[in-house]
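Page 47, continued from p. 46.
Same chain as before, 241 aa.
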Amino acid sequence: MKILIVEDEALYADKLEMLIELLEYEHLATVDNSSDALRLVREQTPDLILMDIYIRGEHDGIELANLILKIQSIPIIFITSLQDDLTFNRATRVNPIQFIQKPFNDLQLQRSIELSIKNLATSPANAPEWENDLFVKDYLFIKVRNKLEKVSIQDILFLEADGRYCQIFTENKKYLVRMSLQELEEKLPKEIFIQTHRSYLINVDKIRSIDLQDSFIQLKEHQIPLSKRQKEVLVAKLNWI
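Result:
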């Protein structure tokens, strides 16, 4: 989880940096002006931005957020000491995911960051369109102990139902999540993932071979069972000759 800080007060910038490191997220950079922020967004694409509204440069934080969202759909948490209704109303037009008032303490900031990431990870049906595109179609956030790990959907090999839980297998790692296979299937693109068995969902792009006689699919070193019913569905979808 790469986090960019846009803050022109050194005291608050240091506080934000320390908390990000404490929460074990990646501190991408800290900038104090709109020009450097735009350059970093174009070059490195942060996953989350902590943005002060009153910053240096040609644009204030709200104008900057508007420009950023035209380049890339990145969630933004506004942090400001301004309390007037005009500023708040302007800020809401760019749909920030949180709005933190200065002065704040570490617990307030920690909860705001974690709640924002959790909300993005669950991606509710009424979320803004850009949020669904960014946080469902491209990757998932999976809770591992006290942090959320970003997992690219393209890296997923297959999913296996395990009672009330589900195991997600990538090429290098295995995750256990408290969700059903059906719930996870709804979060994944249907053009890539297909069910091969009542307990398995696979990434079609990762198929090495399909054994039609013994009814299993080879994904790297894994052999995934293929039910008779799903075999017909899968073969019909494949471009085979």
